[in-house]
Design brief:
- By secondary structure, this protein is mainly β.
- It folds into three domains: 64 residues, no CATH class; 253 residues; 252 residues, 6 Propeller (Neuraminidase), CATH 2.120.10.
- It is 10% helix and 42% strand.
- It is built from four helices and 43 strands.
- It is elongated and about 85 Å long.
């Protein structure tokens, strides 16, 4: 009776004020009026008539879902064990009907709330694995070899080092928003009657979203994978065409249950339970306070008949996007996925080779090892970790990301775009057109003082390489140097202006000796006198990037065809006239050509990844010289969408 009366009072609170007043007034004044005006027998009859009226009024109140549960009485946060037992009890008594519900520890009753409209966004199935990121096939999955799963719970045994968690909203990767992510519990593919003639078409996702309802919410997403358009008309199915590593098909989102926002400090306390019970698919999300929010729907895919595996993942909030964990040192997650299938057997730590229900959404962490445990709560436990430094990281980022756009600009002129390192490359501090018309007959370079240099190496009037510089002080509208040099036009190597603005040419092919050569013409001579011309210890090679460091040591970053399969750094010293190599080492980076490699003045190794990034944005990765290039001290997405119409570099003052 206590539980029922609380539901009645909570529901009554949702009625309009005038209506509540009329009901309360009728119930409170009816007995006194009858006592004054009737004899005892008549009063007794009147009271008997009043009881059904009161019950009907109460029933009418109880049937109205609350917009939101009234503010619950404040209680101390439950302990982990109290919370676990509370969640088990509440899951067992969940209402056996579709709808949206809330409960608060320690009150053991569910209150029905008004549902939000179904989200419109898809959370598609991933059709191809992506390396070095969790999601889209790279994950551990809990699978059972006997019976079917009736419920699964995802939680975190550990969540440390998180200073920010950001992602796109509604699939728009041009902007990252704080606390934008989703928790997904995804089933294996199976073949219920709803699939018709398709095999393994059914897929169910239980989702806690931060933005797909414009505020945090939970809902269930059903899929008929590889179903052609048009979709079934017996429900609100939407067609998804697939593409970019995702599977086409029809999807249906249920109505959603609104939840309060969870502060980032409580991220590690979140638990998501997905279950099949009394013909209902149910999602329940809980936080450290003991607050529960749920949504349930009739099991339209008959999940209980084919549920044998599950994926649990913090990921991008819809639309095959990525969630980014930022840290000051290292983000570490230990993820627990518990399953109930009527046995105490440990589930398997399965990979995407045996599990086919993986999502296309991802996060930026690296996947660690997996362990399976049996007993009263069979589960798998696995690690995710990463070292993506965020804008609020105490690590100093003293460089600027530069993009010199040299083609396809709106006004036909070269443009300079800069994003500050202090913002984690998320804030653009300069975007401007320059005095130079778009041109590709040479090399572009932003100097340490931010002046813009163009070294024109072909199609010059004199037949000689030319140096052109526009000043930062003029916003790149005035050219402060335009001169021909001692070098005849040549493209068999790399041209570079050194910090003192001497002009260097590293000739990497067609040399007389078969060895790479270094040639330098001095700025003091207006590039008419060569102050150095020498062969080096390196044989001619083009499988990487050549660069003269500020101390004029010669560096070669070998990015392909390395014995170890990892990028290598080789340095020959200026002091030895480039005859002695003072460093030769493999790095943490696997061979890759989807971007730009660069040694910074402190000899840290930077990789600016400009294509094929999970987020669709340019990324900056830096491995430290101090660690012999084995530790990455920065991995960050930037404000720039992937682009190759120009020159990328990190500029250090």
């Amino acid at each position: 009776m206590l539980s029922r009366s609380r539901i009645t009072l909570g529901a009554a609170a949702s009625l309009p004020q005038k209506r509540r007043s009329r009901v309360a007034h009728s119930l409170s004044t009816l007995p006194s009026r009858l006592v004054r005006r009737c004899r005892f027998a008549l009063c007794l009859a009147a009271l008997c008539a009043a009881i059904p009226f009161a019950a009907a009024a109460a029933a009418e109140v109880q049937q109205q879902p609350a917009e939101r549960l009234q503010q619950p009485t404040q209680h101390p946060r439950p302990s982990a064990e109290e919370r676990r037992k509370y969640e088990e009890r509440m899951q067992a008594i969940h209402p056996a009907k579709p709808g949206c519900f809330e409960a608060h520890y320690p009150d053991e009753h569910w209150v029905e709330t008004k549902c939000l409209p179904p989200p419109r966004t898809p959370n598609p199935h991933g059709s191809s694995p992506r390396p070095n990121t969790v999601g889209a096939g790279t994950n551990w999955f809990a699978t059972v070899s006997s019976g079917n799963i009736s419920q699964a719970t995802g939680s975190f045994d550990l969540a440390s080092g998180i200073i920010a968690l950001e992602g796109p909203e509604n699939g728009d990767t041009s902007t990252f928003h704080p606390n934008t992510y989703a928790l997904q519990m995804n089933t294996n593919l199976f073949t219920p009657a709803i699939c018709g003639g398709l095999t393994n078409c059914a897929w169910v996702q239980f989702i806690f979203s931060q933005s797909q309802c414009s505020s945090p919410c939970v809902f269930i997403e059903y899929w008929l994978l590889n179903h052609a358009s048009p979709c079934p008309t017996n429900a609100s199915w939407n067609f998804y065409p697939g593409g970019s590593g995702t599977t086409p098909g029809c999807y249906l989102n249920t109505t959603a249950s609104s939840l309060p926002a969870v502060p980032l400090s409580d991220f590690g306390s979140l638990r998501l339970n997905a279950s099949v019970q009394n013909g209902m698919d149910i999602i329940i999300v809980s936080d450290a306070s003991g607050m529960l929010g749920s949504a349930s729907n009739a099991s339209i895919a008959n999940l209980g008949s084919g549920w044998t595996g599950v994926e649990y993942i913090p990921a991008g909030d819809c639309c095959a996007t990525e969630a980014f964990f930022f840290t000051a040192t290292t983000t570490a997650l230990n993820v627990r996925v518990a399953v109930a299938n009527g046995t105490t057997n440990a589930p398997d730590c399965a990979t995407n080779s045996t599990f086919n229900g993986t999502t296309a959404e991802t996060n930026n962490l690296n996947l660690g090892g997996c362990a399976a445990v049996g007993g009263a709560a069979p589960a798998i436990v696995f690690a995710e970790n990463g070292s993506w430094l965020g804008p609020s990281s105490p690590v100093s980022i003293d460089n600027t990301l530069s993009f010199i756009k040299t083609a396809n600009t709106p006004n036909g002129h070269v443009e300079v775009h800069l994003a500050s390192g202090t913002s984690g490359y998320l804030t653009r501090i300069l975007e401007t057109a320059t005095t130079f018309a778009n041109e590709s007959d040479g090399g572009w370079q932003l100097l340490p003082n931010r002046d813009l240099a163009f070294i024109k190496t072909s199609n010059t009037p004199s037949g000689h390489v030319e140096v052109h510089i526009a000043s930062r002080a003029s916003n790149y509208q005035s050219r402060i140097l335009e001169t021909a040099t001692t070098f005849a036009n040549e493209t068999d190597g790399v041209w570079q202006l050194l910090p003192n603005q001497d002009l260097a040419f590293i000739k990497t092919s067609n040399t007389p000796s078969g060895h790479v050569e270094v040639h330098i013409a001095s700025r003091a001579s207006d590039y008419q006198s060569r102050v150095l011309e020498t062969p080096t210890t390196f044989a001619n090679e083009s499988d990487g990037v050549w660069q003269l460091l500020p101390n004029q040591d010669l560096a070669f970053i070998k990015t392909s065809n390395t014995p170890s399969g990892h990028v290598e750094v080789h340095i020959a010293s200026r002091a030895s006239d480039y005859k002695s190599r003072i460093l030769e080492t493999p790095t943490t980076f696997v061979n890759e050509s989807d971007g730009v490699w660069q040694l910074l003045p402190n000899q840290d190794l930077a990789f600016i990844k400009t294509s094929n990034t999970p987020s669709g944005h340019v990324e900056v990765h830096i491995a430290s010289r101090a660690s012999d290039y084995k530790s990455r001290i920065l991995e960050a997405p930037t404000t720039f969408a992937n682009e190759s119409d120009g020159v990328w570099s990190l500029v250090v003052p």
